[in-house]
C-alpha cells in the first residue's frame, strides 16, 4: 500500500516551490538525461526509493528504477523506438551510388573564394547529378527525386549555388593618378614616340 504524501520524511526538507522546480526541470529533459536526473534527485531527496519519488515528485517509479539501474551499472538503455525507427537516408541505403555521386560533384566543385568557410560550392544541379548517375547505370528506383538529391548534395558538403567570382578590389586614391599617367604616355607627340622607338 502506498504511503500518504505527507508522511515522507524528505517532504519536510523540500518546499512545494522546490518540488515544482524539480518537476519542471525533469519535464524539460528526455530519455537517458531525464532518467539520470530523476535518479540523482531520488538518491538525494528520497533515500533511493522509486516509490517515494513517485509520491513526492509524481515521476513514474519504473522510470526512476531504470534510471537508478543505469546509474548503478553504467549502461545506458536505448529504447526500440530510437534504435530501430525512422527511414534511413538515401546515402545509407545506396552507399555505392553515393560514392559515384561524389566524382561528378568534385569535378564541378569550387572552394569559397573568400576562404572564410570550408563549404564547397558546385555548379552541379540536382538534375545533372541524377543524369550523371543514370549514365553510370543506376535505375530510377535507386535514385531519389530531384529535391531529395539537392538535400543529399547539401549533406555531402556541396552547396548548390552559383559559384561566386572573386570580387575586384576597391578603387584606391592612387588609381586615378595611375590612369592619368598612362593617358599622358599614350598621348605623347608622335616625334617623341618615334625617337624613343629608335633608341
Number of domains: 2
Number of helices: 11
Query: Biggest sheet, strands in spatial order?
Result: 1-2-3
Strand content: under 5%
* Subunit organisation of the chains: single chain
Helix content: 55-70%
Distance between the ends: 117 Å
Strand element count = 3
Shape assignment: elongated
Low-confidence runs (pLDDT<50, min 5 residues)? none
**Helix and strand succession?**
HHHHHHHEEHHEHH
Largest sheet properties: 3 strands, mixed
Radius of gyration, rounded? 35 Å
Question: What does this protein structure show overall?
Answer:
- This protein is 56% helix and 5% strand.
- It has 199 residues and is mainly α.
- Helix 2 crosses helix 4, helix 3 (50-57) packs across helix 4 (61-73) and helix 8 packs across helix 9 (146-155).
- The longest helix has 15 residues, at 31-45.
- The protein folds into two domains: 5-77, no CATH class; 90-160, no CATH class.
- The mean pLDDT is 79.
- The protein contains eleven helices and three strands, in the order H-H-H-H-H-H-H-E-E-H-H-E-H-H.
- The chain has a three-stranded mixed β-sheet with strand order 1-2-3.
Give the key terms:
199 residues, 11 helices, 5% strand, three-stranded mixed sheet
Compact overview of the structure:
The protein is mainly alpha-helical and 199 residues long.
